[in-house]
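Structure ticket #2291
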Amino acid sequence: MSRKKLIILYPILICAVLAAIILPLSSSSKDKPMPDTMETTAGVSLNESIDNVMSDIPELEKMDSRIENFLKKWEIKGASLSIMRNDSLLYAKGYGYADEALGEKMSPGHILRMASVSKLITAAGIMVLQEKGKLSLRDTVFGERGILNDSIYTSAIREKAKFDITVEDLLRHKAGFTNSRGDPMFSTQDIIRQFRLDCAPDHETLVRCVLTRPLGYKPGTWQRYSNFGYLLLSMIIEKVSGTSYENFIQENVLHPAGCFDMHLANNYYEEKYPNEVRYYMHEGSELHEEYNLSGRMVERCYGANDIHGLSGAGAWCGSPSELCRFVASIDGRPEVRDIISEESIAAMTEYFDPETFSLGWNDTKPDGEWTRTGTLGGTSALVKYFPDGECWVMITNTSTWKGPGFTKYTEALFRQCRELYSGYLPAKDLFSCSCGS
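Resolution: structure written out below.
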C-alpha cells in the first residue's frame, strides 16, 4: 500500500477504534435507570438553590399578605413556609426577619429549630434499623436482653415494670414515663440539685437519674407524652448502629431523602450555623437560670434549656423545604423514592383511636391527614400532610404566649389559605433546583 493511501486511511482507522470503545459504554449507560433527582446532587443542599424570588407569584400576593398579617398579629419576627403537592415543592418563601438586628430577611434557605418535629426523623431512623434487621419494635429496652443493657442503667432500676418497656412503647409515648416531677429534658437545673451533680448531666447520667424515679403507669397500658422516651430512642440508635445519633440519621435517613442541611441545633446564638436564624422570645418573657446552674440569667431560647441535649426528641434544625423533602421520602407516594418500605410507612401512619399516638407523628387520621407539631422557646413548627397530597410546613423564629397551643392557629391559617389559594399554586418543582435544572 502506498504512503499516500496510508495517510488517508489513518484518521478513518482512529475513528473506528474510538467508536468501538465509546459506543458500548454509551449504550450500557442508557440502559441504566435514571436515579432519583436528589441522589444526583452529591450532597448539594436545596437551601443553596432556592430564594424568595422563585415564589414571587402575582396570584399569591393576597396569600402573602394574609400570612404577613398573621405574623404581625402574633408579634412573630420571622417565619418560613413551604408547600408541597404530590412530592413536588411548589412554593417556598420566607417572611419577616431571620435576624432583625442585622437586617437579615428570612429566606427559604434559612434553617430553624424544628423542636418536636425531630421525633418524626427519629422514628424514621428506628424504622430503618428495623428494616436492616438490627432491632424490632418489640425489643425490650432495659434488662439483660434489652438494647440498653448496660449495668449503669440496670443498677438504677428498682421497678420490674421498667424491664417490660419496648421500643414501640417509647415511640408511642406508652413507656410509663410522666412529667410529675417536671420534664427531665427541660429541668436539668432541678436534676443537678436533686442528685447533687457537679455539672449538667450528659445523656447517660440523665437516664440513670430518671430511672431511679417511679413510673407513672404500667408500660403499654396508657400514654403520656414523653420527650425523655425519644431521648432513649436516640440512645438506642447509637447503641445499635455503633455511631453517633446525628451521624446515623444524616447518613441513613436524611441524606438518602435528599436533605443535606439538617443538623442538631446548639444552645447559644454564638454557636448557630451560618444560615441559621436568630430566635426571639415573646414580649413579657422573663429571663431564666442557665440550664447548667452557672448562675447566669439567660433568655429561654438561648441557654435556659440544653437544646443540643434534646437529641432526637427535639434538637434538629432545618428548612421547611428540606422538611418537605423528608416527608416526601416517607409518604408512600411514587414521585419521590421512599427511604423506608411500604410496610414501615403503613406502621408509622396506622390509625388506632384518638388516644393512641402514631409512630413519630402526633396524629394520623384514617383519611390520610397527618400532623406533626413542635414548640420550643423561640420557635414553633407545624407539618400538615393533607389527604389530597398537599403538605404545608411552617416554622417561626419567635415564641408566642400560647406555647404549644399556637400550632392550632397555624393549622387554621393553613386551611384558610388552602381553600382560597391552593388553586393558584404553580405547576413546578423547586426540588429540581438543586440539580441545576
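Closing remark: Residues 1-42 have pLDDT under 50 and may be disordered.
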